[in-house]
Give the backbone structure.
Amino acid sequence: MAKKIVAEVKLQIPAGAANPSPPVGPALGQRGVNIMEFCKAFNAKTQDQKGMVIPVIITVYSDRSFTFITKTPPASILLFKAAKIEKGSGEPNKNKVGKVTKKQVREIAEQKLPDLNTTSVESAMRSVAGTARSMGLEVVD
């Protein structure tokens, strides 16, 4: 018989750096999950992606066991890395803070494709380019 799902917890945690402090501890502690067990499993799975923020969906079952699925890093984080900037523009329509090439946008779109609700790379590129524009980045050829 399948286990009964009690909750789904969505978090964004730095890869390889999960620890019991907030946001992980309180989110899982109130569900009765073994926090250290999750931290060790998450860190082991994401240690090769250090420096990135990884979205994770944790499914908690009635017997306090859990499973988790990691997603690809958010497009904004990948764009920051590609443009080599620290933060986006406060006024993206007026102040441009950096540039990304169409090739970089394509690479990010291909990386994000499994988590997007499209199957075409061109649609994914338009989505990533829109994120870039809203951050104050110019998309150049």
Remarks:
- The two ends are 55 Å apart (CA to CA).
- The mean pLDDT is 85.
